[in-house]
Every structure is written in structure tokens, then in C-alpha cells.
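Whiteboard transcription, Tuesday session. T.W. wrote the C-alpha cells on the left side:
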């Protein structure tokens, strides 16, 4: 079984990303994010483990990639989760591709990415840091680095000349959607692009949120289970509510002349083809 595969296994018509490849050095993730969608299809997701024979398999697979291919690292599990301190699979992968004609989109919630700047090319890499919340990070992302640490990492990356993307998502009604505008204002001087999206519920992640925020349980149930709609195993908020949440951020970005993309929202022309993940920054 291979570890590098073409992105978008669900072939979603809502995905507006350009073609890229996906790699997760670990199965599962130790950050424990309540809203995580991957827990619905990866068994024991919150009990992360390294991929079997990872380096040997990757050494073989990277030789088959087309020149200039974009690799997204990672999509379902964080490449800089706590396991990386022990196994260093992400760093070993970066060592393998350092001199190859490949481009990289790193997606993480960890300032550990700063450790590997000696291996990360400014010209061939975009680094995306996810900022979901400032107020509730210990509740929503109990094992992930704090908002302050992530912000410092963004500032440091920008200072060193890297192309930086901030994922301000997922936006969850009643929980973190109201702080999204303030977060974007704080990030604005240090990022080249932002990605925003609303929370797409899965039954297990919705239960976790209802348990953590019991006073909001009935509101979340009404919005998602009674008013929402299913699309490819996820429950979407009603369209008008999604528009209201997203327009607060996209309107601010427009005023700031800050590049912005939406992830799997299907709201055009706000969601522009090829603008979602920030990989367009790799093309000079």
C-alpha cells in the first residue's frame, strides 16, 4: 500500500484546489481536536501511530512523482504532531526531497515546523498554519500548541521570507465564528493568503462539541441535524448561515486587500477555483 496519493479521494465537486498529492507520515493525530472529521473514517484516530516502513516506502514512491509535483503535508493528520518529536518522519521526508524537483504545501498547527527550516526551501514551499480559535484553543484543540505559539511561528516564518498561509477554520457557529474577524486582523501583516471554511459536522465530532459545550448543544443540534443538509458524509449548515459567517471574513479580507480562499463551500464567486489552499503561491 502506498503513502502518497492524489488529493481529494472523495472527488468532491466542491473542492477547488489545483491538482496535488497528499502525504501523511502518521496515521491518526495526537492534537485531539474536537471538530476533526478524520475520526469518522480512521479507526483509533486519537491513538496516533507512525506509518509502517514509512521511509522505505516513501523512497520508492517519490521517484514516481512527476517533476514539479505539489505534495500536501498533511491533510488528515498533522505532520508536526507530538509523535514527530520521537520518530521525526516528517524531517526525514524533508531530507529525502531536499534536492528534488518537488514543491511542498505544509499544513500544521504546530510551531515545531520552525525546527526544520534548514531543510525547507523558501522557493518551493508554502507553509500553512491553522488558527481555529484564540479563546477556546484549550477546549477545541486540547493537545495542540496554543494560539500564541502559532502566531509567533507565523511571524517568524514571514520574517525569514517564507510564503505563509493561515487557515482560519473551521468556523463553528456560537463558538468561534464571532472571533474570526479579530483573528484575521491580527494575522493580516504576516500572511500572504488566508483560507476560511465553516464546520462540516460528522456525527462523532458533533457529539464531542455538544459534550464540551453543553449550553450550546441544542443550538448545534438544531442548526446541523434539523436545518442542515448532508453532502458526502458531512452535514453542512444552511446556505444562508454559511454565507453570513464567511462574508464577515471575506469582506474584511477584501478591504485589507488580502488574498482569501474558501474550502469546500461551493459558494461562487466567493470560492474561486485554484485559490483555496494557497498552493497557487508556489507558482512564480
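and on the right, the sequence the group agreed on:
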Amino acid at each position: 500500500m502506498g503513502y502518497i496519493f492524489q488529493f481529494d479521494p472523495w472527488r468532491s465537486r466542491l473542492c477547488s484546489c489545483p491538482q496535488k498529492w497528499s502525504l501523511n507520515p502518521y496515521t491518526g493525530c495526537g492534537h485531539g481536536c474536537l471538530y476533526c472529521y478524520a475520526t469518522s473514517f480512521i479507526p483509533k484516530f486519537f491513538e496516533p501511530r507512525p506509518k509502517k516502513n514509512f521511509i522505505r516506502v516513501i523512497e520508492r514512491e517519490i521517484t514516481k512523482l512527476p517533476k514539479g509535483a505539489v505534495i500536501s503535508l498533511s491533510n488528515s493528520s498533522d505532520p508536526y504532531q507530538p509523535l514527530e518529536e520521537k520518530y521525526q518522519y516528517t524531517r526525514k521526508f524533508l531530507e529525502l526531497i531536499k534536492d528534488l524537483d518537488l514543491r511542498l504545501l505544509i499544513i500544521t498547527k504546530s510551531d515545531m515546523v520552525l525546527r526544520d527550516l534548514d531543510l525547507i526551501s523558501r522557493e518551493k514551499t508554502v507553509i500553512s498554519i491553522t488558527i481555529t480559535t484564540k479563546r477556546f484553543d484549550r477546549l477545541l484543540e486540547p493537545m495542540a500548541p496554543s494560539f500564541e505559539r502559532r502566531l509567533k511561528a507565523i511571524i517568524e516564518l514571514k520574517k525569514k521570507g517564507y510564503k505563509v498561509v493561515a487557515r482560519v477554520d473551521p468556523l463553528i457557529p456560537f463558538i468561534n465564528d464571532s472571533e474570526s474577524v479579530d483573528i484575521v486582523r491580527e494575522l493580516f501583516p504576516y500572511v500572504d493568503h488566508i483560507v476560511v471554511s465553516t464546520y462540516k459536522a460528522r456525527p462523532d465530532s458533533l457529539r464531542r462539541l455538544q459534550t464540551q459545550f453543553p449550553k450550546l448543544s441544542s443550538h448545534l443540534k438544531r442548526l446541523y441535524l434539523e436545518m442542515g443538509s448532508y453532502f458526502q458524509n458531512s452535514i453542512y449548515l444552511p446556505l444562508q448561515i454559511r454565507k453570513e459567517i464567511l462574508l464577515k471574513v471575506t469582506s474584511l479580507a477584501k478591504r485589507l486587500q488580502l488574498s482569501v480562499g474558501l474550502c469546500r463551500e461551493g459558494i461562487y464567486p466567493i470560492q474561486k477555483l485554484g485559490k483555496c489552499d494557497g498552493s497557487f503561491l508556489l507558482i512564480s
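Someone added at the bottom: The mean pLDDT is 94.
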